[in-house]
Amino acid sequence: MKSYEITVNEKVYQVSVEEIDANSFKAHQQTSSTVTPEEPPMQQKTAASTASSGTLVTAPMPGNIIKVSVQVGEAVKAGQVLCVLEAMKMENEIVAPEDGTISEVNISKGASVEAGDTLVKL
């Protein structure tokens, strides 16, 4: 068994790998059943989240809402702009974290928000 330390996106992972010879590998292939790959998690989540999921979209920083792009009942896709938050003279697009339907809009154009305030609920 060999141990390795791997860094991915600045996170360090420790993994162990067992070495096997060619005969052991062939024997393993013959005895193991065929495994079908699972559907990627993103696709499973997308299918399940078309209804309201209860996901809260919160303000990442204090600022003023300069644009609201969604309404209650509107279907949104992951990455779609929900609103624009102006903070420190910069415009920050707040996007949907997942597919879903807007169940609440707690903001309006010109509103002041604090970090952590709920802007929209999916």
UniProtKB/TrEMBL annotation:
Among PROSITE patterns, the record links this protein to: BIOTIN (PS00188), BIOTINYL_LIPOYL (PS50968)
| Highest taxon listed in the record's lineage | Bacteria
Can you give the residue ranges of the Lipoyl-binding domain?
Answer: 46-122
- Record the organism: Pisciglobus halotolerans
Q: What is the lineage of its organism?
A: Bacteria, Bacillati, Bacillota, Bacilli, Lactobacillales
Q: Compositional bias of type Polar residues: which residue ranges?
A: 26-36, 43-54
Q: What Gene3D superfamilies does the record point to?
A: 2.40.50.100
Listed Pfam families = Biotin_lipoyl
- Protein name, as recorded: Biotin-requiring enzyme
> Does the keyword Phosphoprotein feature in the UniProt annotation?
no
Keyword Membrane present in the record's keywords: the answer is no
Q: Which UniProt keywords apply?
A: Biotin
Which residue ranges does the record annotate as region Disordered? 24-54
